[in-house]
Give the backbone structure.
Amino acid sequence: MLPADWRKRFRGRWSLGRLLAPETTFRIGGPAQLYLEPESVTDLVESVVALRRIGMPYRILGGGSNLLVADRGVEGAVLSLARLRQIKRSEGRITADGGARLSTVVRVAAEQGLSGLEPFGGIPGTVGGAVFGNAGSKYGAIGPRVLALELLRPEGQLERVVPSGSFFGYRHSLVGDSVVLRVELSVEPGDRERVGRRTQDIVRERNRTQPGWVGNAGCVFKNPPGASAGRLIDDAGCKGLTEGRIRVSRRHANFFENVGGGRAESVQRLIDRVRKRVRRASGAELELEVRRWL
Ligand code: EPU
């Protein structure tokens, strides 16, 4: 197990065999061998160093909103950033810890009349997760808003990165194995009412066209260039298709719904069936957006 000197200093919470299902919006997944919730960046850095020292692999858990966890759980450690969630405002920017909820950051910006983050209204998950996967909507992705990132590299060093043009791609970034500790997002002064209204409109549109946050993992597949995966799945006649307790959403076909007690193996089977049907119907190859700990 973890070295005694680390355990003595660790300020956060830790547990063995904690179930991951409640930590994911899909509500699917077995236990983590070791679950760590560091209290501060120092705690986090020391945990990563200690885990490396004993050779235990670790994974980073953000908001669990784009994640499918195996029914049998995962070996090694899961590091949750839930306690690292400070949000600060300074001239032209909002700086948020990786574990801060993106929705909270969007709300704080709107309340202060700061414009630029409206496209992210209604997106679940953490700021770190959003940056990792360059989350966004048709109104824009988060990448271009990132002025700088503070990363914890796997070797334990902290690094400030000013992302270049190639750092972000569609639902992709070069964060890789690093932990996103802090993100500086650019915002512009705007009219409080207008920013609030635009954010609300985007949230409302999302709620109208997509299922809510719980019981799914957001879009399962990436959009192929120039097409919508949701439309392709819909056109292939997959809405309502079911495997076990997992169903292709009737509201938006790129969402799979856990109707209660769903299992990762059912999701995997549904992924395979949908891919096959779409390939047959349109020739398109669907690439997964959802991350898997399988
Ligand atoms: N459509 C259908 N049937 C469906 C779903 C969609 O015909 O079941 C049609 C819609 O009517 C629309 C078109 O497909 O004409 C595009 O749909 P939508 O506007 O919902 O956008 P999308 O391309 O399916 C993308 C992102 C979403 C984001 C929305 C809205 C991806 C994979 N998806 O979806 O992001 O919320 O735009 O901005 O990039 C996510 O990444 O997890 C995600 C949900």
